[in-house]
Amino acid sequence: MARLNLWRWVVLALAAVYFLVPLAASVIFTVDVPGQGITFDAYSRIIGADGFVSSLLLSLELAAATIAVVLLLMVPAMVALRLGAPRLRPVVEVVCSLPLVVPPIAFVAGISTVLKWGPEHLSRTPLFQTFVAIQNPDFPFVLVLAYVVMALPFVYRALDAGLRAVDVRTLVEAARSCGAGWPQALVRVVLPNLRGALLNASFLTLALVLGEFTVAQLLGFQPFAVWIYSVGGSQAQLSVAVSVLSLLVTWALLLSLAGLGGRSRTASRG
Amino acid sequence: MTTVLTEAPADVAPAAADQQRRRRAPGWLAVVPLLVVVAVAFGIPALAMLNGAFTVKDQATGATSYSAANMTDSVQGAYLTALLGSVKLSAVSAGIATVLGLPLAQAVVTSRFRALREAVLTASGVLANFGGVPLAFAFVATLGNAGVLTTHLGLKDHGWNLYSFWGLTLVYLYFLIPLMVLTITPALDGLRSQWREAAQNNGATTVQYWRHVALPVLAPSLLGGLVLLFGSAFAAYATAAAMVGSAVPLVTLQIADAISGNVMVGQENVALALSLDMVLIAGLVMAVYLPLQRRSARWLA
């Protein structure tokens, strides 16, 4: 037994070294600048850095819009699948898994081809205005559409797990026999029961959008991840400092997600 | 389960059926917006890619015609090197991550400390999602040319170069191993202690138990995880783009180059053909993964 425990600690220690050393080294890299000694200059420069605030805001706006759109699309559909249209379920499942088969880079290749049709073929049609509008650099809605598609598999899985845990049909029927209308039954009975799943789906989408680089960079927009990349070339310390911070933010987000998920799991068990 | 018990008695069944019929219409309607948005945001780009991959534009006349020339080009020369480079990198890093992730997951699953288990699984969830640019920069700061470890340990004199195949593999493991831990943990949880006890009672050693009981049961999950890791590494672009530029030939980097217009005129559609190649490989990955997952679910139910 002692031998077995030793083996386990060796494995865990090696894993800890591999996973912690790059983080520790990144922090050292940002505070121990050659020729300057220990300095926290890189961190204090972040706020004032050109484009930091605007790119972070853009990412957060994109995330909020993506979460709103994907939940508005998915929640009614998933609830309806449970209640009235079970035969559509395999269709929705396949549709929501398709994005897994198309890597982001292939997806963006397709999107940029479509966007090129705008100037090439549609310049005299009203559709052209739509093409211009969704590529507005202040708020590129085309990215929201892309992120909605990319988030579908995660949101589907999160909501499916949530719906599995509650008996939607009985809940809705109970609400209806107590005199609630359909919207009331949905908003005040079903949604509160799905709170954990909704939070889960929102956080996963948030993490996806904040870290997304491929689509945004290749379509020429500059949300947060692309901004980090663009400062990387000129200001190494600053870019690593931002990377460390963004890692910490992602950690905090996902840890709080795990905390919330854990709590809702125990709540449903009790 | 409870619905069976609350099923309406026979005499009110017509009313219930009536209600069902009325319900079906909104049921359909609620799914329609989702399908429409996916058709527009996903279907059109996918069809455009398919169309472009098989379209050739004549430079002289500007006329376009359908042909398989792009697809042929995409599996030749530099593009083939990139495709093979991607496959090799993904296969090697997924293989290593599978081999290393299994003992780590086993060490965590059999641990008596619940807190350790929770901590490692949560951390895995974070790290598996921590791909992209920050990961690349963290490793550049650690093991890059001016990285902390590189300078302090003098790794450069030993021929270390992060911007190479093995450097990239090392970085990919950072999110692949946690992904493996996440995928394999449910399977390891499904290994019943009775099986180990039965094997021990029959005189089997630990090695024999793993060789004849545990690994065969785990095999579908392990293979499924391996395939999933392969797909994840194969699709990764941000890390490689931020780290190596084009020092390692990868198909994602080639596609990105072509989209940004850094290629010869008339080669744009080869990017779409390459994308189609990627979709085919990713589709193959899924086609292998899903049956394996179903198979492992049968054992571990």
Automatic annotation (TrEMBL), chain A:
Q: What region holds the ABC transmembrane type-1 domain?
A: 56-257
One GO BP on record is: transmembrane transport
How does the record say this protein sits in the membrane?
Multi-pass membrane protein
User: Which superkingdom heads the taxonomic lineage of this protein's source?
Assistant: Bacteria
Going by the UniProt record, its keywords in alphabetical order are: Cell inner membrane, Cell membrane, Membrane, Transmembrane, Transmembrane helix, Transport
Q: Which GO terms describe its cellular component?
A: plasma membrane
Q: What is its main location?
A: membrane
* Family designation: Belongs to the binding-protein-dependent transport system permease family.
Protein name per the record: Spermidine/putrescine ABC transporter permease
Its taxonomic path starts at: Bacteria, Bacillati, Actinomycetota, Actinomycetes, Kitasatosporales
From TrEMBL, chain B:
What residue ranges are annotated as transmembrane? Answer: 28-48, 89-109, 121-143, 163-188, 209-230, 271-292
Quote the subcellular location field of this record.
Answer: Cell membrane
Key word Membrane present: yes
What is the superkingdom listed in this entry's lineage?
Answer: Bacteria
Which GO terms of the cellular component aspect does the record hold?
plasma membrane
Name the protein family. Belongs to the binding-protein-dependent transport system permease family. CysTW subfamily.
Indicate what this protein is called per its UniProt record: ABC transporter permease
